[in-house]
Specification:
The complex is a heterodimer. The longest helix of chain A has 39 residues. In chain A, 55% of the residues lie in helices and 17% in strands. Chain A has 15 helices and ten strands. By secondary structure, chain A is α+β, with helices and mostly antiparallel strands. In chain A, helix 1 packs across helix 13, helix 2 runs antiparallel to helix 10 and helix 2 packs across helix 13. Chain A starts with a helix and ends in a 5-residue tail after the last helix. By secondary structure, chain B is α/β, with parallel strands linked by helices. In chain B, strand 4 and strand 5 form a beta hairpin. Classes of the chains: A alpha+beta, B alpha/beta. Chains A and B meet through helix 1, helix 12, helix 13 and helix 15 of A and helix 2 and helix 3 of B.
């Protein structure tokens, strides 16, 4: 009985002063809305980063290059006049720097590929080592990856991307078929799963993988410009990457060595989301604080308008804590109303931001729970002062409608 | 039994000292019907507020049924106001957005043992003051006399021993004033102690006991007759 009457009387009061209530709500509502957006966009971004890392496949590897990303890097002497690392230097890296598990020389070329009467120009051809599939987290659609025996025997074999398989051998089983690169016939022994567009914007499904030695036979590279290095303990990734970088920079004075970790790349690409989230957090925090302050002052004002009522309640037996409790119920109720409105507004805001800025958002129970929690927290924290003030009113003076002697 | 011993109350307003009550010693036994009269500023309301535990004496002692109120905490006084006293005011002091029934229920909010069926208890009280058919009306929809009757029902709902009324008829016309006074007299005859503050001689002279205050002092206690209305007793000590 007590509680329902208390809640109903508070609702009546708030409803009768709806404009004041609205002003009380606005700040907290905006704060909660932005908070919901921060959480939803933050979780979306995190999921997108994890997704990318998953596709790139590795969190315990880094890649070093002698040219910046976006330029050459295939290991062939070309127009860039790039520095080429010798195979011996690269292969001895695990002996030179403890903590490095394996090195994965990457040999890239772009070349026309033929099959039957069809030709595709400018297809990525990569020379790979035995552990390439595992390190890059590649799945096969059909067939098999290169075995150790395949690689040692120097067989002319290839694993091709699904886009090539569909183009050259539509409706047929590509396994065992022949393709031709640089005048050499290669037997298709496997087809990769679809990967779509890679981070660098190329179609990752238009690719020919050949064993390392076959690539050397095809393109006669003079050295390596790109090497992927895996480490034994991912915790040491950054340290080992820096060591490797300075190792090569000492070996080739005057040249710059570039280092990149997949995770860092994936994160850096979401800088927009990170920056946005940073500013949104500031907005959410300050909106909540401003909203709380506004609510506190309006509650103070509304108490001043209800001094006789408070005096009466005291005359009828209300204790100080009954009065302060009533004020806190009021601020809590306002903040909960503001919180619920803020959550709804937050969903709209999130969708709008996600569409406009091409971000991903994930809604879960976290956002509304956090929104209501912070709204309630603000309501109670900023309700304490008005509540104390109301409770301390002298009943005799309050009944007369005045606050001070 | 309400017992005041050498009660004083001084308000200081900047450099001004207002001696609202001086050397008041008073014994009010149960079932008394007492009117306190005096000019404006004579200390009537201050005395009533101290009797009702809304205010504490500045010095002197106030005992209720043998218990010294100065030993009570603020919460203890609030509990006394809730249980022992019922207040009636000149301006009714009803909650404008609550209907009559809801106004009468309010004291239960602060009661340590409210009745199991508060609405029925409140309904009964409204019937007792003749407003059984107005329970859903808002104060604004009731006449002044009806509003004061709602206030009396509210004062009675926790079954207090003492009804304290500060100018209960001050805002009402003569006929309605008489009706309110009759209700109070009836309550007294049922055993309640009734103490009213009034400046209206017509009202005061109908009361069994009339205490006159002047400049904060009790200068006179009369029994204008009509003594059979009250079983109680008042003594200025």
């Amino acid at each position: 009985m007590k509680k329902s009457l208390l809640f109903r009387s508070t609702l009546k009061h708030l409803g009768a002063n709806s404009l004041t209530t609205l002003f009380m709500c606005v700040g907290i509502m905006i704060g909660v809305a932005v908070l919901v957006a921060v959480i939803a966009l933050g979780r979306g971004t995190e999921a997108r980063i994890l997704d990318r890392i998953d596709r790139v496949g590795v969190t315990d590897s880094f890649t070093i290059r002698t040219v910046p990303w976006g330029l050459g890097g295939g290991g062939l002497r070309d127009d860039h006049g790039e520095l080429l690392l010798s195979f011996d230097e690269v292969n001895s890296l695990p002996d030179q720097i403890p903590g490095i598990a394996t090195v994965l020389p990457t040999l890239n070329a772009r070349s026309p590929v033929l099959a039957g009467s069809e030709t595709l120009d400018d297809i990525a051809v990569q020379g790979v080592a035995l552990n390439f599939q595992q390190v890059r987290n590649l799945n096969l659609y059909s067939g098999a990856f290169f075995s150790e025996a395949d690689i040692q025997s120097g067989s002319h074999i290839a694993v091709i991307g699904p886009a090539l398989a569909n183009y050259f051998f539509p409706g047929e089983n590509p396994l065992g078929k022949l393709i031709q690169v640089e005048g050499l016939q290669l037997e298709v022994i496997g087809v990769l799963d679809t990967r779509g567009i890679s981070n660098s914007g190329r179609n990752a499904d238009q690719i020919v993988l050949v064993p390392h030695d076959v690539f050397v036979e095809l393109f006669q590279p003079l050295g390596l410009s790109t090497v992927t290095v895996t480490v034994e303990d991912p915790a040491n990734l950054e340290k080992l990457a820096a060591q490797t970088q300075s190792y090569f920079e000492e070996l080739y004075p005057g040249h710059q060595i570039f280092v990149r970790y997949p995770m860092a790349t994936a994160r850096a690409r979401d800088e927009v989301a990170n920056t946005l989230s940073f500013y949104l957090k500031i907005i959410a925090g300050s909106s909540l604080l401003i909203g709380g302050t506004v609510m506190m002052n309006l509650t103070n004002l509304s108490i001043s308008g209800r001094i006789r009522e408070i005096g009466l309640r005291k005359a009828l037996g209300a204790r100080n804590k009954d009065i302060s409790g009533q004020v806190l119920v009021e601020t809590a109720m306002v903040s909960m109303i503001a919180g619920i409105a803020g959550i709804l507004l937050g969903y709209l805001l999130t969708n709008e931001l996600a569409v406009r800025l091409d971000l991903r958002s994930i809604f879960s129970w976290h956002a509304p729970v956090a929104g209501l929690f912070f709204a309630l927290l603000i309501g109670l924290v900023f309700g304490v002062r008005p509540a104390k003030r109301a409770a301390k009113l002298d009943p005799v003076l309050a009944l007369r409608g005045s606050q001070q002697k | 039994m309400l017992y005041l011993n050498q009660v004083e109350k001084v308000y200081s307003n900047g450099s001004n000292r207002i001696e609202a009550l001086q050397e008041i010693s008073l014994k009010i036994s149960p079932h008394t019907f007492l009117a306190i009269q005096g000019k404006s500023g004579s200390g009537k309301t201050t005395l009533l507020n101290i009797l009702g535990c809304l205010d504490r004496p500045g010095s002197g002692a106030y005992q209720i049924d043998g218990e010294d109120t100065s030993l009570k905490s603020d919460n203890g006084l609030a509990a006394l106001r809730n249980k022992k006293f019922g207040f009636v005011f000149q301006s009714f002091n009803l909650m404008p957005r609550f209907n009559a029934l809801e106004n009468v229920i309010i004291p239960f909010l602060y009661s340590s043992n409210p009745p199991g069926r508060p609405k029925e208890a409140a309904q009964q009280m409204l019937e007792k003051v003749g407003l059984g058919d107005r329970t859903k009306h808002l104060p604004g929809e009731l006449s002044g006399g009806q509003q004061q009757r709602v206030a009396i029902a509210r004062a009675l709902v926790n079954n207090p021993d003492v009804i304290l009324a500060d100018e209960p008829t001050g805002a009402l016309d003569n006929q309605t004033s008489q009706e309110i006074l009759d209700i109070l007299a009836e309550l007294n005859s049922e055993g309640k102690t009734v103490i009213i503050v009034t400046h209206e001689k017509d009202i005061a002279k109908q009361c069994p006991y009339v205490l006159t205050l002047s400049d904060g002092r009790a200068i006179d206690l009369k029994q204008p007759g009509n003594g059979n209305l009250s079983n109680g007793e008042v003594a200025v000590l």
